[in-house]
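From the pipeline queue, job 12 of 40. The input is one protein chain; the requested action is below.

Action: predict structure.
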Amino acid sequence: MASGEERYQEFAPPPALRPFVRVIWTYDAPDPTPTIQRIAPDGCPELIFDLGAPYAEQGDDGEFRLQPTALFAGQMTRPLVMRPTGPTELVAVRFEPDGARGFLGRPLSEATDRRLDMVERLAGFTAPTGDSEGQVAAIAAWLEAQRLGAGWTIDPMIRAEIEDAAAERPARVRSASEQRAVQRRFAHRVGVSPRLLRSIFRFRRVFDHAAQPDGETEGWLAAGLEAGYFDQPQMARDLRRFLGCTATDWAREQHELARAIASQTYKPSGPHPV
């Protein structure tokens, strides 16, 4: 990597991890812009290991505090606001929406809108700096050991519900008692309700258009109608809820990690194999 060059890469997980992990990604920014970054919800929890200077996250009180060097980010229902504090180098695991229960070992609802300190959990884990493929191989091997040790499982009913939501298929008709049971299982396995996850998926189908360099207002407005929004005000409410600003403002102001994660949707090639 050339000096000062920013780099974001995604890698497909090994076959044994694919039911649980959507992608493993790395990010390097030797000289990041010290500006606020808004990370929008995408419906997936993540495990993040920081090999460089940690990010500072804005709390509810408006103050910025350093994140731990290893953290688990649960489901998000609002934007994460943070800024770099120095040279950045990350290796991270993006789980499937319901894929992290075995890893976390506790209900995902306990991690919603929280970043849990994983420094002790990852004590002894090392990854080579400046080597994305080596970092991915290291975290994949560590995760596989975790999977085998804890016997991770997937709830078939919850996975089917998530696949329906991702494919924009109508929600299944259930009795009130059945729906309450689904909501409890969703809180345990996913961390948000089925309805909220559908809202996040719909929002992402619109928001990702803001990451295109030539994305115009008309483009994401049209995408909103295609995604199922009734009108612009309804879409604007979700943008404000999940992004904290308008799509136009986000597209104009965001740089580096926030834009790299969003714009990956539009790259022509898929994740690299590990």
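Job complete. The longest helix spans residues 132-150.
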